[in-house]
Each structure stands twice: as C-alpha cells, then as structure tokens.
Amino acid sequence: MADHLPPSLLEACVVVGASSDKLREVYQAANSNGTPELPSLEPEVLHVLAPPFISRQQAESEAVRPFVRRRRSFIRKKREPPPFTASTLSQASSIFAGGGGGGAGGGGGGGNEDISVPKDIDLTALPQLCFPGGLHLSREQKEEEFHFLVFTDVFGNQTHGVVMQCYRPIMEGTNYYQNGTGPSRFSKLYCAYGFCVVSKHPYYTALKDCLSCVLVQLRTCRLSDLEERMKEFSAKLALVPIPPPGQLHVMFALRPLTIVLPSREDKDHPAVDLDLHLPFLCFRAQQLLQVISCLLQEQRVVLFSANWARLTLVAESLLLFLRPLSWQQPYVPVLARGMLDFLMAPTAFLMGCHISHFEEVAAETDDLILINIDEGCVSTSCSESVDLPEIPLAAADCFTQRCLSLQMHFDLHQCHHASCSDINEQRAQRRAWQRNLNHDIQRITLELIVNIFRDVSSHLNYEHRVFNSEEFLKTRESGEQLFYKKVLETHIFHSFLKDRLNRKMDAFTRMELNTRSETQKMKAMVEIPRRPTMQEIQARRNSSITENRLNKRLGMSLPNLGDDRPISFPRHTVLSRIIIPDLLRAAPKPVNVFKLPDFPAALSFHSVQSYYSELILQLGKAIFCVPPENSALLARFYYLRGFINTLCSRRLDALSDFQNLYKTDTAIFPTQLVTWLVDALRREERQQADRRPELKRLILKVKTENEKLLVKPDDHVKKFVLPRTHLHQEEFVRCVQESGIVKDIATIHRLFDALTVESKRDSSSDTALRSPSSKSVFSFDSSASVEGHQKLVDPELFRDFYTFWKETEAEAQDVNLPSEVIEHLDNSECVYKLSSCVKTSHGVGKIAMTQKRLFLLTEGRPGFLEITKFRDIQEVKISSAPFLLLRIPSLRIQTSSRPEMFEANLKTETDLWNLVVKEMWAGRKMAEQHKDPQYVAQALTNVLLMDAVVGCLQTQRSIFAASKLAYFDKVKHEVPMMVPKTTSETLKHKINPSLDLAEPQTVHVLLYTPGQLSCSDSEGNGNPKLWVALSGGRVIVFDAASWSMLQDCVQVGASQLNCMLGLFQEQVWIGSEDSVIYIIDTRSMSCNKQLTEHRHEVTGFALDSRDHQNCLQPYSCSCDGTILHWDSSSLKVKRQFQINCNRLSSIQIHDGTLWCCCGDSIVELRKNGAPQRRIALPDDLRSMPSCFSSFVLILEQGQLWTGCADSGELCLWHIKDHSRPFKRISLPGTTGVTCMIRVKNQIWVGCRGSSGVGGQYDGQLRSQVLVLDPESHAVVKELQAHSDSVQTLCSAEDRYVMSGSACRDGKIAIWKVE
C-alpha cells in the first residue's frame, strides 16, 4: 500500500566516495613515492539516509508514516574508521534502518551493518553513476559539479537523482604521523565525495538548489560533522510533500535560498522543473526536428557531451517534447565508463555518454544515431549525415516558424527592469520567466505532434479498437509515407493509439479539437466518405510548381479500373494544420504558491509532530481564505491536508479532506489511498465515521466500488485484416466496421443482402431440386437462411469488394479538375463518381457526380456543363437510343431547370447510373424536407457501395444486388415523401448525435446553455452550446451557433443520465441513475466534481433564479422522494425534504414554491417541505394503470397542465379547485405524453407515437411534437420529425425548441418558435 501514498520530496540520500582503506593506501603511496600521477579509485556507498529518521520507540512507526515502504537490505562489512576521518563515516544504520535497526552509536567492532534501502534504488550501479567518469584524487581544490540521473525499473517506473560532487582534503583533522614526523611533510590531497539525492519526481532544479544550500555548510564543517549535517538535510527534505497536480506550487525555506516545487500539469504529465530551452540553445530547429524524428522512429540514439549534466537535461527535454507520446524503450541518459557495453543492445534506446567516447562508439557500433550536444550536430555511426525519413514538411515548417518567436534569453527580458537586491526575488523573477518560456515551448512541441498525428483519429474504429494503418498511410503525401510507415510500427505510437482508442481527453485531444478548421468541423457533422473538396484541389494546385493537366484516370470509368500501380493520396496538408495563433500565445494559467512552515530545529518525534500540526493549521487557514468558487485551488489544499493527516494517523480527518475532493476536483482523488484508509479504520473510528453522514457515504461508496468485479480495461489495438473464412452476418458487420468502410449497422445489413444475392439464388436452386414447394428467394429476411442454407459472404468476394472500394476511393483522390470546372463548383463539393466518355444530348464527355449535382466534363479542352442539381430532378428513366441498326441503352433525366430532357448513352453503365441518380435524388429530397444533411451523406455512401458491389460481382444479377442498397429510393416509393407543410416551415435543422456510433442512441436529456461574451472566441467557449445526454453516460456537446460537434464524448459515469442543469454558465449538473450528480466544467469540458448526497437515482433539477444576494438556488430530487436544496458556492446541502411517493420523477420551482411530479400525483410543497396541496391522478387513468409523466404550471391563469405516459390526452386543472380536471385535450395520433415545456405563450408537448410493423423502424414519422395555445386550449401545430418517441424537449432562449428521440430514430430536431 505504500506505493499508493504520494512520496515526499526525498526518497533517499546516498553518500558515495572511496573506502577508507583505499584512501590510506593512496595517501601513503603518494607521500612516500612522490608519484605525480594519482590513481583512479573505486567508489562505494558510504551512507544511505532514508526516511523515517526517528526511532521506532519514538515514532511508534505508524504515528508518522502508517505504512512504510518495503525495503531490502544492503549488507556491507564495517571497516575500521581511518585515523584521518575521525570516525566520521561510521554507524550508518543509526540514521535509518526503519527507525532503529542496528542501534544508535555502536562504534568500533567488525560486525555487519544492515542498511535499509528503498527498493527502487540499485546500490550496485549507483557509485559508478555518481562518478561516471571515475573517482579521481586531486592535488588542488576543485569546484563542485552537478549532474542528474534517471533510474528506470522493469515496469517503466522512474526514479530521479541529482548528484553533487565536491572535493574535501583527505588530511583534515588527522592525528596520523608517519616515521615520527608531522603532517607538514606530506602534500595535501583532495578526494571527491558524491552526494546523491533520490526522488520519485524529476525535481532537478529544486534538488540542485537544495544541495547547493547544504553545500554552504559542507564547505565549512569538519568531516566529523558531515554525517549529522547530511542527516539533518535529508530529514528536512523528507518532510516536504509533493504538490498535487494542478496550479498549486509548494515553497519551503532552506537557508539561504527559498525553494519552489512546481506541480504537475495533470496526473498523466510529469513535473517540469528544468530549462526546456536548453536543446534550442544547442541545436537549430532543423536539427532538433531530426532528433525528434529519430525518437519517433525509435532509433538507437546516443547523446554525447563533455558536460555530464547536459546529457540528462537535454534527454529529459527531448522526451517532454514528444508528449503525449511516451518513450517505451531503454533509457539511460548517463552511462558510466564501465557501462559502454549497453550500447551493444539490439533494441532501440536513448542513452548518453561522455564526448571522449565518441570515436570509440562510432567505430565499434553500427546503426547508431550520434548526437553531439556540445557542437549541435547529428550524425550516424556510418556517416556524417542522417539518412532517415524526415518529419512531414508542413508540420516541420510550422514548428520552425514557431521557434523564431521564442524569447530564450533572460537578460534580454530583464534589461529594462531594475536590478534585484534580494537573491530570492531575483530567483522568483527567473522562475516566472522560465515558466512562461517552458509553457511556450510545450505548446509549440505539442502543436508539432498534433500536426503530425492529427488525422489518426479519422482511421480509428472505437467499437472494435481497430486502427486502419494502410488507409492512413494512403492519405499521406508520397514523400511522407516512409516516415509514417516507420513510426506506425513503434511501441511509442502503439501506446499513443491506446489512449486515442480510449478517448483520452488530454492536451493532444484538446488542441486537436480547438485547432480544427471549419471544413473539418463540418465534416465531423456528417459521415461522408473521404474525397478531396474543390477547395483542397485548388489549394493543391496552387502549391504545386506546375499545373497538372486533367489526370489520365478521368478517361476511365470508375467501375473498370485497370491501373495497378501504387496509388498515393495527394492531400492538401496546409488545410490540415490550421492553428489558431491566439491559442498558442495564450499565457499559462496563474499559479498559487503555498509556503511550508519552517523546518523543526531538532530531529525528534515531538518536533516532527509539531511541524505537521503547524502545517495542518496553515492549510486550514488557506482553505478558509479561498473563495468557494475557486474550487480547483480548494481541492489542492484539501489534498495536501488529507495527505498530512494520513501521515499523522488522523484517519477520519484525512477521509473528510478527501471526501471534499468530490465537490472540488475528483481528478486528483486518491482512490487507492482512501481505500487503504477505510480498511485501516479501527472499531471506534468506524463508529465515529458512522455518526458523520459524509464519511458514512464515502465509506459506503468505497466498499461498493471494491465489491464490484474488477474488469481489466480493454486496451489492445488491432489492425484490420481481410477475412479468410466465410462470414456470417455478425462477422460481416464486424469486418466492415473494422475496415472503416461504413459504421451504420442497418446499411451493413443491406450490403450483406446485396453480396449474398448469388448465394441465395444458388441455395434456392438447390432447394428447388429437392422441394418443388420451396419459397421464392425474394421472401428472405436479411438474417434468414434458405431451408437450412445459411447466407454467407465468401472471403474472396469480400476481398474483391474491399479492394474495389479502396481503389475507387484512391481514384477519386487523384482527380485533378481544371480550374475552369472548379470555378463552377462550391468549395465543399467533391467528385464521387465519374462515367466513361459517352455521347449525350449536350455533347460528348464524362458525367461527373458530386453531392449536389450532375455535370458534364466536355471532351477536348475540358469544360463544365451543368446537367442538373439533384433537387431539380423531376424524372429519371432508362430508355434506348438508335445507333445504326442497334438500340443503345440510355439514361434520361427531366429537370425543372431545363425544358428539354437530358439523355446520355451510358451503354452498360446505364442501369447503375439509373440506381445512383435515383438514390441521390431521393436522398437530397429527404435531406431538404427533413432539414437533415445526413440523408445526403447516407445516400452518397449507398451510391458508392452500389458501385463497389457491381464492380466486384460483375454478373447479370449485380444490378439487382446493388438495388438492395437503394434505401432512399425504396423509402420514397413506400413512405410518403412529403413532410407536412407546418412541419417543414417550423423545422430548422436536424442533427445526429450518434454519428460516430454503430447504432443510434436514445437522446435522454437536452440542455441549452447561452453564450458568454467574456470568453475568447478562440477558446470556443463564447458560443452557445447544446448538451446531449446519450445512453451509457455519454455526453455530446454541439456548438449551438453552427451546430458543429465540439466534443464527441464526455464520459459521465456509466449509467443512464436523467436530467441536466446549467449553472453560472460555468457548470453543467447532470443527474444519473447511479445516484450521483456529476458536474462538468464548461471551459475544460471535464467532469471533475461529484455530489454524492443522494442515495437513489437522481431524476430532476430545479433552479430558483430569484435574487438571493445574486446567488442561484439549485434543487435536486431522487426517485425515493428526496429533495435537496444546495448552496451553489460551497456545494453543500442547505436543506433536505422527503416526500412519500412511489417515484419522484421531476421537480419545478415557481415563485419559490416547489412542485413535484410524484407518479400518481402532483404535489406542491410549503417552504418547510410539508405538502400544501396534492393533485391526484384521475380515476379512469389510475385504473389503467398510468402515471403523470410531466406537467406545466401557468400561474397567471391558475392552471396546471398534466400529461401521462400511457394516455393520449392532457388534463387541465385549476390550482385552487384540483378535485378533478376542468378540461381534457385529446392529442391526435399519440399514445402517451413523455415531456412538456412552456415556451413564450405556448405549450410544447413531446409524444409517443404508434410503432411500425413489429416495432421496426420503417422511416415513417410516427412521433409528434405538438404545440398548444394555453388560451384556446387547441393544438395549433402538429410537428412530425421523429420515427420514435420524443424523449426530451428543451428551449433555446425562447427562440428555438430542441426535441430528442428514442434509439430507433436517435436524432435531434431544432424547431423555430413563433
């Protein structure tokens, strides 16, 4: 359990030097022989100082640290103390050994000493790493030197070390005389000692500062006092807690300096406590890109420098530049002289060694990337140049330009400021400058990574966890493909893919979303097969040296592709790297600094306890001074205080602090530590906890979570592989989804029918031979089998279909239309299909199809002639045109834009084009009538699937098979196409929140939040938003100005979400079936707070917006009848009411009075929570049985309107006379009322309509949204836009009403309010 406790700053302090015996020998030899050359010595561990630093008898073990890290022993033979050290290097175990192993004192003797060592520290290699160049003696005093170490265990966990080497005279304090002469006849020798401070966190600058502070004492103290000085130093650092992730830094005084520990940005990001601009000072931007490219390709990289400190600092900076990609290979930034054989490892690695070994390493080892930090050059062990694929040009150019804007010289920054007279003030100024510079560098390098991997998410299948690497590679420029091919095979990219498939909301995801172009945002709204738009084609041409003529592929018919040469996708990379400049220049978030109390003067149990008490007191004062709205800072203080309380065995206080994290920031909640604390509670503590409601809830939650079956999250990543066996329908669905062709299950089922037409015919023929009475093949259901013959897709047929689909996609990418043609098309249009050269009534040419129109590419000099827009088509039919003695099949199209009919002699392509044009025509008509652009996208997908089916089957029945995919044309003939006029006039738009999912999801709740004028547009927070709660705790966020998707998934628990409430334009409260109220921060789009006071399913919210000292008063209710009144600032419960009812489904507040929908009654509550009046369900509805589903209160008329889930009528009540409804309004075409809201002077009612045959979706609009007039009690509008029941309604500032439907439809309709 110790691993779950956040470590203190110090893990251990190790003193390394030469043994006393060896020093005696060398000293004697140097003075007796007068040898000018001094030998190198073998360093060894002299002291290991590790917490706790007080004896077990004093500390009672758990009183200070209740669970001590498991340690292993390091046994060494104690040697006789040399005369010249005056017993200074003895009794190491008296300082550590778990608080008393080996006794305190214990001088002399030759026994063994048990030195307790933290398990992550390898004492075998540490002496070499502390002196990587060897331990040397010197005849003169040398300056102190620092370098930095990183230790990595087999699990990838890192420990960090800062080493200080300082020289001390060997003869200090000696009483040793040789041959009766005094010490004056001996020359003075100096020996280096290494002081290594080990920490779990990479606080390089802070630990260097700490060692610099103790150096002041070490320079003046005697060797006999060195042990005590280092013990005091280590004990102080062991008292320093690590700040939690966020914007709270920790400061402490270590004379003469003030040290600051910066916090991590988030829990997945390491602390940054070094100068990230060092690599920029060593390398030019182009060379830095070379190094990053080598790391991304996981090469064998070796850093060289004459300065040991530079090796680790540059290596650590480079790895930070790769974030969020995490280096997975061996990493040893400092190799001692005796470790050079590590460079023979066959795997990829990142290592560093002294520049003196450069020639040796280059000559002895092949295929190494050699990076000379001192000279700023990059080479290989085979040549002076690096022959590796470079980072894509667009991303590299952007990075190079960004680097020019970096201000990397502190003196330039400070030249206009006054000189500081205080060293700590000057250091603070330097820290602030460095923090801003580090922030800018991290943003620039993150932008580089985003630009390199921006399009990866477009080739992911989240349901099956598949990355289609082949298709991703085809979308890269030809010159970039080798780079991506190498990167895609690396471990570092594989780990990155896992995070993307897990929909991790990290800095990469946030920047990728915030820097999407408008075109990319619009493409995210509808699932359209990838094709280059006219804008991309034009931009591609402008970026090329010469304008290419019309590609030779335009002379081919897409169904008859014959060119087998490799195809690349010429993508316009400039469009894919649009970055918002203001976003990158944004200043880092402001930080707060908490200063720790002064360290205790003496090392004793009581002084340490007093120190912790003072620290808890200061944290309490800080918590009191923080305003409730600054919940992020409050959370950090609660976390620190909970950690200190844990160290002091104040378990209940610690649990109380951690409980407060639910209301401030759950992102830093220490789940494992809290679980340990709960399990460690003694009986009397458990009894006390049961008397405190908040602790009782926390303990119950912990126990409940622990009782759940622990399922390891699925983090594998698959590559798409073509099937090798016959496919059943379920397997076929999986394969098609994994291939990235289409996600929608209904479309895949129709494709399955199309590809099994031949198998159905063969099966039915075989059956007919056996049974003359067998059924017709046309009577089969998509999942049926033919008299025991199950429908299967042959793997070769699937391969042919997949190959044809991808070749067609590649051909379309290679389309390069002339400028004269592009001028006539919209920027967003794409060419999806092109015919062979045919004779038409408008001349000879090729017929091209976009999502909007058909046009003719005339022969000769390519020109543009519009045939028709799909919306203008009136009739499409197949005819025949005379040619000599033959009749050639032709396609005729009658349009409203031209009086004459267009005719094209398409010959063998006629039938396919007939299906294609009719499908696009029907899809366009439905899209315009239903105000739903996804219909066009789906029609396009159907058309391309038809094309691929015909191309891969190439049989007489291929057209019949393709007709199975003509979904919209079929719907047009079977279902009335015309949308009622009222619906068409009122409906503004429709959106599909389940676009990225395989099947539509039920829209459970909708919430509109208005825009914020104070927010920067670049942050995307200024526009109004539409929040959509889908099944499984999934929340989708749309920009309510453009209806583009802002967040494709904010995961809020795993249960169904029942209600939402916007608060202060900064928070969205969401009530869940799991009894928790989740709070989303609208700026960060993260769910970092939870309210756990409800015991049952949360069903409703109400907001009292009356002015209570400018404070909103939110209420929440749960199904068991509990109503909680919240303090919106502190998130504490102010009052609690309880209603006796079967199920409390919703609440509303009017003039400070609560009205509750209680299933069989509507209840009004007094201010004290007592029922004031109860309106019961009418007797005729009570006998059904039924229940109230929703209600609307019209106070000015004294009326209450109620609806029931199983009744197609509204009941109207007088509030004062509520014995029975005074009027009932029959709702046409409905079987029940699901929701009601009041908008202006209208009542909008969401209804449940009749089901289709067998409850299946048949395309008909069966559920209505009704608009009623409260004055006349009449239905003034019947709006039809959903094919499943309406689940929720919400209003957007009384200008629009949004309706969301159940899963057979799963869409959101946006209605205009008149």
Automatic annotation (TrEMBL):
Q: Which Gene Ontology BP terms does the record give?
A: regulation of Rab protein signal transduction
Presence of keyword Oxidoreductase? no
List, in alphabetical order, the Gene Ontology terms for molecular function in this entry: guanyl-nucleotide exchange factor activity
Domain UDENN positions: 94-507
Q: What positions belong to coiled-coil segments? A: none
Q: Which ranges does the UniProt record give for the WD repeats?
A: 1279-1314
Cross-referenced Pfam families: DENN, TPR_DENND3, uDENN
GO cellular component terms attached to this protein's record: cytoplasmic vesicle
Disulfide bond: present as a keyword of the record?
no
Keyword set, alphabetical order:
Guanine-nucleotide releasing factor, WD repeat
InterPro entries recorded:
cDENN_dom, dDENN_dom, DENN_C, DENN_Domain_GEFs, Quinoprotein_ADH-like_sf, TPR_DENND3, Tripartite_DENN, uDENN_dom
Note the PANTHER family from the entry. DENN DOMAIN-CONTAINING PROTEIN 3, DENN DOMAIN-CONTAINING PROTEIN 4
Q: What is this protein called?
A: DENN domain containing 3
Protein species of origin = Myripristis murdjan (pinecone soldierfish)
